[in-house]
Design a protein that fits this description.
The protein is mostly helical and about 120 residues long. It contains five helices and two strands.
Length: about 120
């Protein structure tokens, strides 16, 4: 027979987990945190790609990633999935942001939107 621990037995573990998670949650709620994280990871990637361990960096990019259902499989390397998969999602989200700004935000007024439109047209 398996005995279950009383609810209060998990309290220290729960408090320790929350002590680790709360700073991360507050960091991710700040809008600039994603940009900071992106810059840090870009610097790490550049240093890694130009270091003596560059071979492991290139091997990581060429690691095969497979998605499949039944007999249908998609097998490409990580480089392909990042370039062709995640970039599609990125531009989709950017498009949704622009659309929201055009209807409800800063770009809803033509005078405010003129400069970004001119910049986008080149």
């Amino acid at each position: 027979m398996i005995s279950e621990a009383p609810p209060w037995a998990w309290a220290p573990a729960r408090q320790a987990a929350l002590a680790l998670v709360r700073p991360l949650e507050s960091f991710l709620r700040i809008q600039t945190s994603s940009g900071i994280l992106l810059m840090i990871m870009a610097i790490v990637a550049m240093v890694w790609a130009n270091s003596p361990w560059q071979e492991s960096y290139h091997r990581l990019w060429h690691t095969p990633v497979v998605f499949g259902i039944g007999e249908f499989t998609l097998r490409y390397d990580l480089h392909f999935w990042i370039n062709d998969g995640l970039m599609v999602i990125f531009f989709f989200v950017v498009g949704l942001e622009i659309r929201r700004e055009m209807h409800q935000g800063e770009l809803s007024d033509l005078r405010r939107a003129a400069l970004p439109i001119a910049a986008a047209l080149g």
